[in-house]
Amino acid sequence: GPLTAAPYAVFHGFNDIYRDFPDWVSSSLGATMHGHLFAPEGAEFADRAQDFAGGLSANPRLRDYNPEAYLANLIWSSRDEYLAFLFAARDSQKITSFLARDPNASVSMISGTWALPLMRSGKPVHTLRRQAARLQQREVRAVERLRERRTRAKVRIWSLAEVLETPAEPLRAVLEDHSVPGASALTIMPPLREMDALAAFLQDLRNMGMDPHTAGPIVGVDTPIARPGVKELG
Question: Which pick of 5, 7, 90, 182 has the fewest CB atoms within 10 Å?
Answer without folding.
Answer: 182
